[in-house]
Amino acid sequence: MAHVATTPPAAAYDRLRVYYFTGTGNALIAARWVAAHAGERGVPADLIPIDRLRRGELPTGRRVLIGFHFPTHGFTTPWYMIKFIARFPRRPRGIKAAAYVSNSRAGTNIGRLFIPGVSGTAALVPTILLLLKGYRIAGAKAGDLPSNWLQLHPGYAENPARAMLAKREPQFRRWADRVLDGRTSFEGWGTFLLDAAFAPISPGYLLIGRFWLGKMQMASWACDGCGLCESLCPVGAIEMRGKRPFWTHRCEACMRCLSVCPWKAVESSHLYLGTTITAYAFAAQLLLTAAALLGTRFPAWVPTAGALYWPVRWFAALTIAFGFYAVLAPALRLKPLNRLFTYTSLTHYWRRYLAPGIRAKDFSRP
């Protein structure tokens, strides 16, 4: 019997627009997979980075699909993507608009053993925001892509990273098929219990952790002031001060600056992290003592030990993180101090990571 070529059925949408936020390229690769598959199904697709983009737009068409791709930070959605979706236009009346979310999360291989990543609330937060804006949720996809948390471990070597991506691409394409058919498809529920266990960490990360991790970044003595990290920072968090980069409170710790620096001059200072955590532990103990004393000297209706305790701890944590960095950044111009913080940074000895096939030019803003 002769082989008869078949064509894929018509998609349920006439337009796809994909917005993505990426640090080292994983989310970009996943977004490309979905956009390419849509094109093969006859659905025109726009692929748009949200780097320094304040507000997105709906594509033209009567049946449109909008996708949001992003990494998982602190077991939740990056704050920059949360703000972007919060500002996204509401669904206009008369337009059949659906949306999906896809978070890349830290998949890991130990020999032949594969360990999936943990999403926490990464898919939940944007889904709720999009529902409130009137969009039908077409699906969600958690993609176990190579972990790029360089503050915690060395970057993936290229061959193992390519092998992991080769296994994930067919999964993304099959999932995209179901969504483009108009079906609702949620993938990644296999780690539901782990996600639920790690979900309570998410608020702490958004309120404190992201600032602390962002302030770990520093420039070693190898920095030549080229400004590449500043120009390619997706959130505009880096400022050049006296030909040296300074990381502001907007930093998302996405690891792009560490990975694109041609001199490998950007480090994450573990000495900074240890020093500030020690200082905070000491300050927290003082707060506990002060709260206990104040609680015995004021009437019960005065909000001291109870209502003010956690806000004061939050304020103390950020004051220590920002204050120490404000002093440290200019002091790092002193070569002995710079070398101390450089050589005590684990990133100085670890492999950097960019997703296979991704180069610095792929992060250039249009």
Count of discrete alpha- or pi-helical segments spanning 4 or more residues: 11
Mean pLDDT: 89
Write the CATH architecture name of the domain at 15-192.
Answer: 3-Layer(aba) Sandwich
CATH superfamily of the domain at 15-192: Flavodoxin domain
Structural Rg: 23 Å
- Determine the N-to-C terminus distance: 51 Å
Largest sheet: 7 strands, mixed
**Fraction in beta strands:** 15-25%
Element string (H = helix, E = strand): EHEEHEEHEHEHHEHEEHEHHH
Please name the CATH topology of the domain at 15-192: Rossmann fold
How helix-rich are the residues, as a percent range? Answer: 40-55%
Detailed description of the structure:
By secondary structure, this protein is an alpha/beta fold. 40% of the residues lie in helices and 17% in strands. The protein has a domain at 15-192: Rossmann fold. The strands form 3 sheets. Strands 1, 2, 3, 4, 5, 6 and 7 form a 7-stranded mixed beta sheet that branches. Strands 8-11 form a two-stranded antiparallel ribbon. The protein has a two-stranded antiparallel ribbon with strand order 9-10. Strand 4 (96-110) and strand 5 form a beta hairpin. The radius of gyration is 23 Å and the shape is globular. The N and C termini lie far apart (51 Å). The relative contact order is 0.13.
